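As described in the Methods, two query proteins were run sequentially through the folding procedure within a single session, without resetting any intermediate state between them. The first query and its resulting structure tokens are shown here.
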Amino acid sequence: MFENQNVLIIGAGRQGLALARYLASQGAHVTLNDRRNDSALQSARNALADLPIRWVSGGHPLSLLDACDLVCPSGGVPLTLPLVQEAIRRGIPLSNDSQIFLQAAPCRVIGITGSAGKTTTTTLTGRIAQAGWKQGRVWVGGNIGNPLIADVDAMQAEDLAVMELSSFQLEIMRHSPQVAAVLNITPNHLDRHGTMQAYTAAKAHILRHQTPQDTAVLNREEPGAWGLAELVCGRLVTFGVGKPPEGSLASWLTPKGWLAFQGADGSQKRLLPRQVIQLRGEHNLRNCLAAAAIALSAGLPAEAVRQGIEGFSGVPHRLELVRRHRGVAWYNDSIATAPERAMAAIRSFEEPIVLLAGGRDKNLPWEDFAALVRQRVDHVITFGEAADLIADAIGEGAPRPYTLHRCATLEEAVQQAAAVAEAGDVVLLSPGGTSFDAFRDFAERGEKFRAWVQALP
């Protein structure tokens, strides 16, 4: 398919490097372009030193498009980049590692997207699949872990792939997985997409290119996800806490506290009791219900659902307990890069909360977050670029929070939290903003937080 094609890949991160290796192996003439300079790209260049790849660094000259057959922007590259806009103007097709993987994958693919919970749900679904998919190997990746294009040549027809898909990947995709799940669509990444309409349209691509033989899994209780139901052209499976409509395929929580699955004939299959779920919060209950619905719709056995969920304590940087110190529990929720995600974390605790919020804003609304903070949080410490924005949204004069501190850095915020927290409190890093004002990504921010907390005397 790609032999002798001239392919330009923009962005030499993990997605771009994996795609470059794959396309070169298919006989394409690959150019890798990145705005970073040669010294910053040395490790990336070393990783592909065995391949005949042309490198262009330090900028994005439009001349790269001359004689170009295909342009592949990596997920972190905005489509507003002049180089991408010029490719569109010239009629050069766009693709990316996820779309090329879907085109090449010999096996069935489950794709999962959402504004929140997709990494946890993808991980849970992968665990369920590994417990119950006996006919072949299970591959888990995409927006988390390894780009699946790196493994596609090793995949067999009897395997199963589970992939997380972000709006950045989906916005240019014209292929959909055979099983496509949308967990929720709430305000996020508006700094990239501009409007909720554009953001929702990007997410919708996970369903838009399915066939009547495919399956869509939607959250029937979340308006953003359920609003895409009109796009479903194949089988529809839903998930939610409340009892589903009769005759529908759906997971739900029974009045007696069991996660269950309803068949089209109205039959009820109990999967596992809620009390065996180790993950905190109502949002994680919904993640488990989603994973159950996805797994069963993909043909996995019911007993594998319990095997995959039971004993799972979470993904790093997602309500991760870092330390109990002097009676205070410190939690790392660095993945919360939008106010909605921080709100879900706050609702997961009954204990008094000392909240660390900040980072870089994504042009998202903070009013609902501020209202919840005034109801549930005892102490707030803001940090980073968005410190003043968040503090101003919360305001002063309400009964809560009792104190509101502003810090320049997360490290200072940790020290301030240690000063105000009392035995029985929870200190919660759930920033609501991205990490890019001070860190490479949310994982580095979470790792630094862990280290600073562990160093507390």
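Immediately afterward, the second query was submitted; its sequence and tokens are:
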Amino acid sequence: MSPIAKPPTVLLIGTDARTDALLAACSQSPQHPRLVGLCELPMPGWAHRCEQVFTGSLADIELVKRIAMQVQADLAIIGPEGPLAAGYVDALGSCGVPAFGPSRKLAQIESSKSWARHLLDRHGIPGNPEYRVFETNHDLQRYMEELGSFVVKPDGLTGGKGVQVFGEHLHSIDEAVEYAEAVLHKLQKVQVEERLEGEEFSLQTITDGETVIHCPLVQDHKRAFDGDQGPNTGGMGSYSFADFSLPFLEKADVNQAQLINERVIDALSRETAEPYRGVLYGGFMATGSGVRLIEYNARFGDPEALNVLPLLDTDFVELCLATSRGELARVDRAFASRATVCKYVVPAAYPDASPPGVRIATPSVDAGLEDLRWFWAACNEDDEGVSLTSSRSGAFVGIGDSVAEAYVVAERAAVELEQRNPGKVRHRADVGSSDVIAKRIAHMNSLRGACG
């Protein structure tokens, strides 16, 4: 009789709804893993789902190493981009702890937008828009005037909020130059790109450097308010379709995005002599003349992870372990053919600062309701309950056979939570609505018609 294998100990690192979704996926593993959390806030619900929860700065790499060794972690799963860019995968590896995610060198695909653009150019991979990287302000104004319509991007991590669009955030060339010079002063590099017109979509590809698993495509909504109004945020919600595509995309668009991700994974390995292991998440734009790359991320998206992880029909812990070992080919993997709508609930003033310590009534999510999920984000939990921060509070994910079904599930839950917390929280009602999706389809049809 063979001995019973010891359940693996999994250390989850992060303080957001994406990491809560990763925790939920791990908790469904048939291996019954011992779950340990490290977060910057006392995340609601983690004390009940984890055997141990540590709170501390995610910028403290020595703390992470000490915790990993103390709990004898068999695997670390890192949610946000900061620890990846800081080299947490390398540090954990030096302690003998495999991690799901790329090394610091490979995480440059997200932490340096210019490095990512140049990688595509060096390897002849299509998808780049017209762009230039500036290290001084020389020719900055002339290039902006030459492009006419452009975006300004910091060459570093900005939480999805650093990109400024001419005509929306920047209302004159002088204002654009001033912003670009401020970025230069802070980061020593700034990128100016042509402004693309089309529809954005997200493709998350799980890989061990050889085998790839393309997740269902997702469309995010970054603007703060209904109708795509207001400033950019970390993401107010997203949706995915049961056929894993999006209705405004053609098959050629999907194939092109998948091929770009696959070629970039290969180029990363050849350029760094290391296999890319983890998630390569491409933010793409479908235009009238094909697919263009907006940017790359070195981890699951937030909110996009919340759409795809509940659909994963495999042991997520085993998938992550196999990825970290270069053995992804041996893992059975599949996604349920269902649609999702994710709706973030945020403080009423978001993305502006909110008063600290505002108490909220928590969601009444029936644990037996298979078609609704709730994932906590940046909230505090103590003996008196849950309080808000200035960041996103949490997200409902509705699941259905169609986006229309999933929308009803998520919207009903979000409205109910608002009603229980009047004046304290809000959400975008239009994420995943039939009207918004119809507009996306009409927009792409008009662009293709103009280019045809």
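The mean pLDDT is 94. We note this only descriptively and draw no conclusion about the first query from it.
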